[in-house]
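Hey team,

Filing this mostly as a record. A colleague (T.K.) asked me to run one chain through the structure pipeline before their review meeting, and I want the input and output archived in the tracker in case anyone asks later how it was produced. No errors, nothing strange. Just documentation.

Input sequence:
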Amino acid sequence: MFRIWAKEFKDNRLLKDITIADDKEDTRTHKVFNAIEKVCYEFDLSKPIWLDMNIQEFKKHSKVRFRKDSFVEEIDFDYLELEVIEEDDQY
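Output structure:
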């Protein structure tokens, strides 16, 4: 099972969160992008742009924060945080 926990924060307060689970046979990258798509649909957001700093942060910590510079549209929160909380054993 692969699970990602998505959280929306403003002023250091959690506004909303969701956990996305994926048990399909797919690559880690595809699972991450599928989860982001589901999160953005549920939170009614445009998909964030992966900047170099986001990629490095995610590779290092399996966690990433998308701030306003990662979104094309205006956002009404400080950042969207995605964290891998469970990974398949095959990685």
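Quick notes for T.K.: The longest helix spans residues 28-43. The mean pLDDT is 93.
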